[in-house]
């Protein structure tokens, strides 16, 4: 999927820009302008920095900044590709210590003019300025927990600054963490493409709801190891392995010629946050077109869940054992018609051609073991094994929750307001012990009165049980560095050791009267209600205590925990594990779905949602004090979430069911 027009240039520290002396640094600054561009990104054909030097790229108003890039980004080929920066003006700023070991080599070969809008505004990192089709399913829905490892293999790829594709990390028989990425040959066909690609990991919504993800976990550059245009595959090796905080996972693979009984693909449709598509039927072997090898593709006749779009090309197809078997070449699937997709077969890419640069075998089986399949691989263990955790649930929705007084807004419960509540907290109960490396927050409102505003948010970690008690760590971040309407990852300068329950406390400081800021919140009416707290003076209060209501809340936040010692399975912040029996499940049209409860129930709310969170109408009856029956006739086959609230105890019962439709 092409989103940018390349402009060839020859700009370097010798012939362009200006040099300044600032303290102990020599600073080179270059301002680029491409009128009408939604964003700009750069390809450096020479990038070699000495230790201690830093490179930043930012928009003219400094509202969008990436970097610092350092000598750690040096590569053997000297090529460096940047992620997009919003707007049609881009400032390149290089800072070199006066006592640097050598003078940097910096030369820009290509400026890429984004004409679609991959990052046109701070709240629009998505191409076309909107999300992928409504039928697409966020990969972090609770019911997709079976794919919690495999999702961490998927990445979005910007190729040579102008094209969007998907790909996935893939394991080899040595289990040595060599950072291979598998994608389509029509995405990356030359070593130049590989050198100039940017690979983005963890670009996803933290829960089943739809919010633009954090886009900071990227790696620039790779080397092409193998490709074939007639088999449409490419294998590249990243210039650096993803670090622990990226939570990488390397897919296992299966080179069997047997069609999979079911399959799934995790990808970035239209360059959007990570989605998943699922086919519960056996794939077929078919020919895609005369440009490719005959019978070289797994054919997906129909997706039961989700679809693919432009930008999904190169996405991994995995079988029921969660092993890689192919990559997306193309097809006709859409939300309206999720049919007919073609994935290039991995078993043919294995050694169809004898040349090492046209086959996978040389790279994925370096010891020539000749095995048919291998399992996936997590390269990190113990203190370097990290995971992302949130208190939000599938049934949650997020919003800017305002303080209302006689119909007039007085600001936000989790941000600026007229009452002086400037600190708020989220209670986290995820592990017996862990090391916290950072948090990601969903910013709802952000408006600074002046471009040089000194407003900041302090992120603190407190121990405590019912309320924050003892400070463990605190770090400040400029509000100018945050993006509105998206997740923002705030990395800590050091890991913070936690034991049991802890709190993330957010405080906003140095604001001017016209500044506005808030963190997005969930709104809840059922148990367990609340993990969100507000500080008034020196005292902490639950959301219910401050609102004098029965609704609870949770902050739209994701914590990155490493070295986790036993996850808390009976998590009080997740829905209670209430005893119900559901049968039959799965079930067909004409069959009555029955739910038996552990205690008598008086349902005052019975809701049924599809996977996109849309409420659907289903007939139900209450034939006994512990029973409900449902008739799904006329609904589209698929997964559904039932949400039932007991009027007497205000307890929430939930279950997921699979409706198969007609026999």
TrEMBL record:
What domain of life does the UniProt record list for this protein's source?
A: Bacteria
Gene3D superfamilies on file? Trypsin-like serine proteases (2.40.10.10)
Q: Which InterPro entries match?
A: Peptidase_S1_PA (IPR009003), Peptidase_S1_PA_chymotrypsin (IPR043504), Secre_tail (IPR026444)
What is the protein's name according to its record?
A: Secretion system C-terminal sorting domain-containing protein
């Amino acid at each position: 999927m092409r989103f940018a027009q390349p402009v060839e240039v020859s700009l370097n520290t010798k012939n362009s820009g200006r040099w300044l002396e600032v303290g102990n640094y020599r600073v080179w600054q270059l301002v680029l302008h491409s009128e009408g561009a939604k964003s700009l990104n750069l390809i450096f054909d020479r990038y070699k920095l000495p230790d201690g030097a830093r490179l930043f790229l930012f928009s003219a108003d400094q509202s969008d900044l990436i970097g610092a890039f350092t000598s750690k980004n040096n590569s053997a080929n000297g090529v460096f590709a940047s992620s997009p920066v919003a707007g049609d003006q881009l400032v390149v700023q290089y800072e070199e210590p006066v006592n640097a070991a050598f003078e940097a080599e910096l030369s820009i070969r290509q400026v890429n003019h984004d004409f679609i809008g991959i990052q046109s505004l701070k709240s629009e990192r998505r191409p076309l300025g909107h999300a992928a089709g409504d039928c697409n399913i966020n990969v972090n829905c609770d019911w997709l927990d079976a794919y919690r490892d495999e999702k961490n293999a998927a990445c979005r790829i910007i190729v040579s600054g102008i094209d969007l594709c998907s790909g996935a990390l893939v394991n080899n028989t040595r289990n040595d963490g060599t950072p291979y990425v598998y994608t389509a040959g029509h995405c990356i066909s030359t070593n130049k493409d590989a050198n100039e690609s940017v690979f983005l990991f963890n670009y996803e919504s933290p829960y089943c709801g739809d919010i633009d993800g954090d886009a900071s976990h990227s790696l620039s550059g790779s080397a092409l190891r193998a490709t074939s245009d007639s088999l449409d595959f490419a294998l590249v090796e990243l210039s650096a392995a993803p670090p622990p905080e990226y939570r990488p996972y390397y897919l296992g693979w299966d080179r069997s010629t047997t069609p999979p009984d079911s399959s799934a693909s995790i990808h970035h449709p239209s360059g959007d946050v990570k989605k998943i598509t699922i086919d519960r039927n056996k794939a077929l072997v078919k020919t895609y077109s005369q440009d490719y090898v005959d019978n070289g593709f797994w054919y997906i006749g129909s997706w039961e869940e989700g679809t693919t779009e432009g930008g999904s090309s190169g996405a991994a197809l995995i079988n029921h054992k969660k092993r890689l078997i192919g990559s997306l070449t193309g097809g006709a699937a859409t939300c309206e018609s999720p049919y007919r997709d073609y994935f290039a077969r991995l078993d043919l890419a294995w050694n169809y051609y004898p040349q090492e640069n046209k086959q996978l075998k040389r790279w994925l089986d370096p010891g020539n073991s000749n095995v048919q399949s291998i399992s996936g691989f997590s390269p990190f263990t113990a203190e370097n094994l990290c995971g992302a955790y949130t208190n939000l649930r599938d049934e949650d929705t997020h919003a800017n929750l305002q303080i209302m007084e006689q119909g007039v807004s007085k600001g936000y419960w989790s941000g600026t307001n007229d009452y002086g509540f400037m600190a708020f907290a989220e209670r986290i109960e995820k592990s017996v012990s862990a090391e916290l490396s950072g948090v990601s927050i969903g910013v709802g409102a952000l408006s600074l009165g002046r471009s040089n505003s000194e407003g900041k948010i302090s992120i603190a970690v407190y121990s405590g049980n019912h309320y924050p008690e003892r400070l463990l760590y605190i770090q400040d971040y400029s509000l100018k560095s945050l993006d509105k309407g998206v997740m923002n990852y705030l990395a800590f300068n050091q890991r913070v050791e936690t034991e049991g329950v802890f709190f993330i406390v957010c405080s906003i400081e140095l604001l001017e009267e016209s500044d506005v800021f808030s963190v997005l919140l969930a709104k809840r009416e059922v148990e367990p209600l609340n993990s969100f707290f507000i500080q008034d003076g020196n005292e902490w209060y639950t959301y219910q205590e401050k609102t004098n209501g029965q609704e609870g809340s949770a902050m739209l936040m994701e914590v990155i925990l490493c070295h986790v010692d036993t996850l808390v399975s009976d998590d009080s912040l997740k829905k209670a594990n209430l005893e119900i029996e559901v049968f039959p499940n799965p079930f067909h049209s004409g069959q009555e779905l029955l739910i038996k409860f552990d205690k008598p129930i008086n349902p005052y709310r019975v809701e049924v949602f599809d996977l996109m969170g849309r409420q659907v109408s289903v007939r139900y009856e209450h034939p006994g004090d512990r029973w409900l029956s449902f008739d799904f006739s006329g609904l589209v086959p698929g997964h559904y979430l039932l949400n039932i609230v007991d009027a007497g105890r205000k307890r929430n019962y939930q279950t997921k069911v699979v409706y198969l439709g007609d026999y």
